[in-house]
Design brief:
Radius of gyration: 17 Å
Number of helices: 6
Order of helices and strands: HHHHHH
Largest sheet: none
Number of strands: 0
Helix content: 55-70%
Strand content: under 5%
Distance between the termini: 44 Å
Length: 142
């Protein structure tokens, strides 16, 4: 999850590829949240990344889930503005289950704030590329 200062600005900052990726990953996180809470619905995405830091953060408070759902709505709205078509997403299903959540305050996670969304993502990609390169190009000792 990458966030700057408001949902709409965050969605606008992402290029088309990252916007699609964030829609998918946000939906996966929310689907996994509800599956871990015992919701059995074949329309939800499959459970994944149960131990990811973002998933752990979601599990801390219903407020975190509602916040992420609002971010997903902004992503989907931006997608619709750019593509002139609705994204085939399961937002309506996620909203149905989110209505069952009691209202709680959000918990703070520093990974959500700070640099711009794209800057965080580019830093991550650079780190990932560097580590993959190190793994692929290990020095051979003789």
């Amino acid at each position: 999850m990458f966030y700057i200062n408001n949902f709409e600005a965050n969605a606008k900052e992402l290029d088309d590829i990252l916007l699609n990726k964030m829609i998918l990953e946000t939906t996966q996180l929310l689907s996994t949240f509800f599956r871990l809470k015992g919701v059995e619905d074949n329309r939800l995405y499959k459970e994944c990344y149960q131990n990811h830091p973002c998933q752990k953060w979601l599990q801390e408070s219903n407020g975190n889930v509602l916040w992420l759902l609002n971010l997903l709505k902004a992503y989907l709205q931006e997608y619709k503005l750019r593509k002139k078509v609705e994204h085939k997403n399961i937002l309506y299903i996620l909203e149905q289950y989110s209505n069952l959540l009691k209202n709680e305050p959000m918990t703070y996670w520093k990974g959500l704030f700070g640099k711009s969304g794209c800057r965080n993502y580019f830093d991550y990609i650079e780190w990932k590329k560097a580590n993959q390169w190190k793994t692929i190009h290990k020095k051979t000792e003789y």
